[in-house]
Amino acid sequence: MRIFIGLVALLFAFQAPVWAQQKDIPGKDLGPMDTPLPPSPYLAKPLPDLKGVVSWKTLGQVTPVRQQDRFIPQFSKDVSALDKKEIKLQGFMMPLDMGEKQKRFLLVAMPPTCAFCLPGGPDQLVEVLAKTPVKYGFDPVVVTGKFVVLKDDPMGLYYRLTDAVAVSQ
């Protein structure tokens, strides 16, 4: 039985390129959507550390600890020291609303590869609430604002940046 399933899977694997090349499939001609986006140059390596900007390595210093029927974050001293302080963060925007400019978005450590998938765990994203809308783009941005360490957020977030403003580096 295993051999049969393996042969069927192998047959489908070799036929997939033929099916993908068929021209008379309804909805196949999608115009610009047929062309995949080029891969981000930032996928191969993490963002470089910038002077005066909090590193994602620092924000990664958190351990989930089981407490009764759930897990809560236990933050390192380095992370706890940032709570309620004005800091700078560098990352990629993940919009939460429609539009060219975003007032509320996620700042993530790695570039998003899917509009519906988070590119990391809760220690690799920060909810940003901006003072003024920030223009959305695919390149990394640096924002400054009041950093809040969330110890028991109902959405599972660890970090929030309020009164944020985009800064140029």
Task: Write a brief structural summary.
The protein is an alpha+beta fold and 169 residues long. Helix content is 16%, strand content 36%.
Describe this structure in words.
By secondary structure, this protein is α+β, with helices and mostly antiparallel strands. It folds into two domains: 2-34, no CATH class; 56-167, Protein of unknown function (DUF3299) (OB fold (Dihydrolipoamide Acetyltransferase, E2P)). It has helices spanning 2-20, 56-59, 77-80; strands at residues 62-67, 70-75, 85-95, 101-108, 125-135, 141-149, 159-167. The strands form two sheets. It has a five-stranded mixed beta barrel. A two-stranded antiparallel ribbon has the order 1-2. The protein is globular. Residues 4-22 have low confidence and may be disordered.
What is the secondary structure topology, with strand pairs?
Layout: H1 2-20, H2 56-59, E1 62-67, E2 70-75, H3 77-80, E3 85-95, E4 101-108, E5 125-135, E6 141-149, E7 159-167
Parallel strand pairs: 5-7
Antiparallel strand pairs: 1-2, 3-4, 3-6, 4-5, 6-7
Fraction of residues in helices?
Answer: 10-25%
Distance between the termini: 61 Å
- CATH architecture descriptor name of the largest domain: Beta Barrel
What is the count of structural domains?
2
Q: What's the CATH C level of the largest domain?
A: Mainly Beta
Radius of gyration using CA atoms only = 21 Å
Spell out the helices and strands N to C.
Answer: HHEEHEEEEE
Keywords summarizing the entry:
169 residues, alpha+beta, OB fold (Dihydrolipoamide Acetyltransferase, E2P), five-stranded mixed beta barrel, two-stranded antiparallel sheet, 3 helices, 16% helix, globular
